[in-house]
Design a protein that fits this description.
single chain, 9 helices, five-stranded mixed β-sheet, Thiol:disulfide interchange protein, 2 domains, disulfide oxidoreductase activity, periplasm, Thiol_disulfide_DsbA
Length: 219
């Protein structure tokens, strides 16, 4: 009969050890990445369009070699995300050439060929060594995907597209973005290669922040 209390005590001890292990793991996870070191708060936080989703926005520039390297890594990571994560892309622009490149992105998006033109624009600049500043060069990215020149011109120069470009520029300034690639998590945090340490580590920090935001929604 004495074995029963002993067994009960053993089970209790095992449960306590398990709870302590979970608690320790949680604390270690929280201590793994620190604000101000591995990620930064944005200058001006924004509210996601859909509050039920955790927004992850990649800020890029077609002329940035690090962005080109980041694309396949980020795309693969994107496929692994849960339904409550909304992935977005936003072009950076600090000068006139970058604004032209931003218009490539939004024109492709408006015409439904972003999935094709996005990669083509990176390849044009880094493989073919084009600057993509002349409209004839820009149009060639769309022409091979069946886009008519008149349709391209109307979209590329439309007021709506210019408004999207300006909004993206305003958002980047609000976030405090100074380099690319940079990823904004839920309108609150900035993650870059310089803060995280590497592009692969960027994804780990992003995963950490997604889990942090997900936990905040449940609390």
């Amino acid at each position: 009969m004495r074995a029963i209390p002993s067994l009960g005590l053993s089970i209790t001890l095992i449960a306590l050890v398990a709870l302590l292990t979970i608690a320790t793991t949680s604390v270690n996870a929280q201590a793994l990445y620190r604000e101000g070191q591995h990620y930064l708060p944005v200058n001006t936080p924004t509210t996601p369009k859909d509050p039920s989703k955790i927004e992850v926005t990649e800020i890029f520039w077609y002329g940035c070699p690090h962005c080109q390297q980041f694309q396949p890594v980020f795309s693969q990571w994107k496929q692994q995300q849960a339904d409550d994560v909304r992935i977005m892309h936003m072009p950076a622009m600090w000068n006139k050439p970058m604004r032209t490149h931003a218009r490539i992105f939004y024109t492709a998006k408006a015409l439904g060929v972003l999935g094709k033109v996005h990669k083509d624009a990176f390849d044009a600049m880094h493989v073919e060594k084009k600057r993509l500043l002349k409209e004839s060069e820009v149009f060639s990215l769309f022409e091979k995907h069946g886009i008519d020149r008149k349709v391209f011109d109307k979209t590329f120069h439309s007021f709506g597209l210019k408004s999207q470009v300006q909004r993206a520029n305003n958002l980047a300034k609000a976030y405090g973005t100074t380099g690319t690639p940079e990823v904004i998590v839920n309108g609150k945090y900035r993650v870059s290669g310089s803060t995280a340490g590497s592009q692969s580590e960027m994804l780990n920090v992003i995963n950490f922040l997604i889990a942090k935001e997900r936990a905040n929604k449940k609390s």
